[in-house]
Prior knowledge:
alpha+beta, Jelly Rolls, 2 domains, five-stranded antiparallel sheet, 10 strands, 25% strand
Amino acid sequence: MKGVQLLLGFALLILASSLASAYDPSPLQDICVAIDEPKNAVFVNGKFCKDPKLAKPEDFFFSGLDQPGDTANRLGFKVTTVNVEQIPGLNTLGVSAARIDFAPYGQNPPHTHPRATEILVVLEGTLYVGFVTSNQLNNTLIAKVLNKGDVFVFPIGMIHFQFNIGKTNAVAFAGFGSQNPGVITIANTVFGADPPINPDFLGKAFQLDPQVVKDLQNKFMNGD
Ligand SMILES: *[C@@H]1O[C@H](CO)[C@@H](O)[C@H](O)[C@H]1NC(C)=O
């Protein structure tokens, strides 16, 4: 009898833990600090939902992705996002999109999307794109030159980049496996952290003179 009870308890424990994981979705935002007072709550995991009876076509609609983004900036690129911020109907649905414009030799610098795989379609121009595998896979560079009509995939979490190697503007559209993919730009995160990360520490980590680290921190903390 004791043995049966023990087994039952164990089975219930397993059931409870599997149910728990089944009902605990992946995070849809960077942080979600719990709040006791729902009146002041800003986020749930994703966003609060409106009454479905009040949904209208505009909730699932965005217009203007035919318009080029302004690439007159240091890196010569502009991302126009179409995620849950622009289309509220995307909430909980796990997809979003973006248009990326590149000036000649413009670049989308090394970055990662913490919550989404990205699939990129080139509409105009020639892009050199790639991602680097994790430490476990020896940081292998998987890169390719893409032309009009070519498609490339950046797996979730991998550091990746796009570089317009043509003499003309380039345009690409991207699809993401999240309503809110998030962006972590490597240089801005490491050297533009506010307050700054200890320069001696970063110097050792990156094999750089701490003064070089300080110069980088000045650049990335004042603008982009
Ligand atoms: C990574 O490098 C190690 C050591 O050289 C090697 O044994 C392993 O096969 C490599 N793995 C991959 C995925 O290349």
